[in-house]
Amino acid sequence: MKIFPAIDLKDGQVVRLLKGDYNKMTVYAEDPLEVAEEFQEAGAEYLHVVDLDGAIDGNTPNFAAVRDIIEGTDLKVEIGGGIRNEEIVVDYAQIGALRVIIGTMAIKDPEFTSRMIRKHGKNVAVGVDIADGKVAIEGWTNVTDTTTDEMFSNLIDEGVRTIICTDIAKDGAMEGTNVELYRKLVEEYGGYVDIIASGGISSLEDLDRIAEIGVPGAIIGKALYTGALDLAEVIERYKD
Known about the structure:
By secondary structure, the chain is of the alpha/beta class. It has a single domain (2-238), classed as TIM Barrel, CATH 3.20.20.70. It is built from eleven helices and twelve strands. The chain has helices spanning 32-41, 52-57, 63-72, 86-94, 104-108, 110-120, 148-158, 179-189, 204-212, 222-226, 231-238, and strands spanning 2-10, 13-18, 21-29, 46-51, 76-80, 99-102, 124-131, 134-137, 142-147, 162-167, 194-198, 217-220. Strands 1-4-5-6-7-10-11-12 form an eight-stranded parallel beta barrel, surrounded by eight helices. A hairpin with a 2-residue loop joins strand 1 and strand 2. Helix 1 (32-41) runs parallel beside helix 3 (63-72). The longest helix has 11 residues, at 110-120. The radius of gyration is 16 Å and the shape is globular.
């Protein structure tokens, strides 16, 4: 199972939100590159980055910080938040991002998302953020009427290869992840798309349980910053 330590960026700093609430934000570091370097030293190969400002505003205010991480480490970086046009997709590709993660636009402009998947293939993933079975967009501030199953079915039909799925109710709460959600998704869609689990992963037990059901990748955020999980231990445990 691939392990993606996470860096969430707000105003150039490394932060974590509680259940997606921007009013419940903790700043963990002022230098994102330094955090990324620490992750690499612990053995990380991959890094999940979210531009929280971009997720709301639809632009890339933390682009320079992402570029510094890509240029300053050997990490394979996926980046989400504010991916609203092809220029941004290309800009991130040009600085060496592993892939971009389309979120809001997958709901608001399915044609754009389909076109990006066709043109950029595996370099485009989609983030599906879930609130009570419905897809949330715009930095989790807007819950739509689209169900999880509708979203997954549509994306698979369009040829997406990777979906990052977050249970917002679990994110940052340190209460464990939604194993049953991922079990259902893997059983129904795992033969068509790689599903990356995100939200609430706070123990080795959480990781063991999602690994056992066949989840190919996991994003770990707050548990690393609080010390609940040791990244080096996690990577050693789940290395191929």
